[in-house]
Amino acid sequence: MSKRKNTTSSIPSKTPKHWSLGLIASMKDPKSIIKNTEKVVVIKDKYPKAKVHYLVLPHEEINSIYKLNKSHISLLEEFGNIFKELKEENESELRAGFHAIPSMQRMHMHVISTDMISTSLKTKIHWNSFCTKFFIPYDELLQELKDIGNIRKIPSELHTSLMKTPLQCNQCSFKPKNMPELKDHLLKHQLL
Length: 192
Ligand code: AMP
Ligand code: ZN
Fold this sequence. Notes:
The protein is α+β, with helices and mostly antiparallel strands. It has helices at about 20-25, 75-90, 125-130, 140-150, 155-165, 180-190; strands spanning about 35, 40-45, 55-60, 95-100, 110-115, 135. Strands 1-2-3-5-4-6 form a 6-stranded antiparallel beta sheet. It is found in: Nucleus.
């Protein structure tokens, strides 16, 4: 008889969903939702990278910005209206944009405050994903969709080099040596 342990009983009856589907679960979680309209949902980012960090997602099952075509221009305009509302409702200065290479499924727009103060902001990759050209501003993405009818992917060499970009404060010319120095420095901007 085989000595291999029978592990069948330890397999959960419901297989856990892949981590990249987490936003789709959060879109249905009343604790995450801050706005819900006919076309879009706004949720709180679970690991905020600034004092204010929301995600705007369509109800329509659009996997990523690379699935967009001209028929989605009105949806994107709705994203813009939601961004305007969020700016009116928040005291912090907000930016809206998309990661050039998203990690999570369901297309989503980040709405994030410029302070970049958060315990969840830990790595140079986190920083460079919001503070280099890896972050595609909302207006640029909408213009590209209007101009050519789709969003072009960035070359992988550009992705690599953007992630290696030396740290640079987003509010002044200071170039910190490392993340702890940057995070200390960001706090000083709050006092000004
Ligand atoms: P992206 O790199 O554009 O795909 O960013 C995904 C964002 O989703 C990140 O800012 C994460 O902090 C955030 N996030 C990850 N998991 C969840 C979740 N389950 N609910 C809400 N936000 C999440
Ligand atoms: Zn600075």
